[in-house]
Design goal:
With about 200 residues, the protein is an all-beta fold. The protein is built from no helices and 17 strands. The protein starts with a strand and ends in a 9-residue tail after the last strand.
């Protein structure tokens, strides 16, 4: 295991890239920034609890953490960048905190094991292919400030079922956003929706 000191504020670019035997990492309680590729390809890391002090995260920060199962995001993070958790193929549980506004392109691409998603009320944008190939995803709960769902955002979620309830704030749903989701039984389209 690795444990950050309580004075640690930044984890630099590629700091633990390809540390394939790293199973646990205590991020401390003063961390502000995680740079790109910082924990990419840490194939044994099993969980990540990110503190409320974390404000920025670089692209591919946790890319291809194949054994990552649980993820908790702190209240200070407003943007999950592109490819941040791409190919975390065993990730089953994500806790999103209020304060998050944007989920970037491919952020959770190839996260096959996700079972349910509950987004915070502060979330405004879900990027292109953000949850592409969430093969066992069964339910989605959208917050009440969501404005845009990107292209292919939930493409290939074949067991997603029931009615999709969109908030009144939604303005745009991208192409193929719910492509090959054969078990969806209905979708409500609020009056403010401008593009689908």
């Amino acid at each position: 295991p690795a444990e950050a000191t309580n004075s640690l504020k930044t984890v630099g670019e590629g700091a633990f890239f390809n540390c394939k035997q790293l199973k646990t990492f205590n991020f401390g309680n003063k961390l502000v920034s995680i740079s790109q590729d910082a924990f990419a390809n840490c194939q044994s890391l099993e969980s990540a609890v990110l503190p409320d002090t974390l404000e920025t995260m670089g692209i591919r920060a946790f890319d291809s953490n194949l054994e990552l199962k649980t993820l908790k995001l702190g209240k200070g993070l407003k943007n999950i960048p592109e490819d941040a958790f791409r190919n975390c193929s065993n990730l089953t549980d994500i806790t999103f905190s209020e304060g998050l506004e944007t989920i970037g392109e491919n952020a959770f691409y190839l996260c096959y094991a996700l079972k349910s998603l509950k987004f915070p009320d502060t979330l405004k944008t879900i990027g292109n292919s953000a949850f592409y190939h969430a093969n066992v995803l069964r339910s989605i709960t959208f917050g009440n400030s969501l404005e845009e769902i990107g292209n292919d955002a939930f493409n290939e979620s074949p067991v997603l079922s029931g009615k999709i309830t969109l908030p009144d704030t939604i303005r745009k749903i991208g192409s193929s956003a719910f492509y090959n989701c054969p078990n969806i039984t209905g979708v409500n389209f609020p009056d403010g929706l401008q593009s689908i």
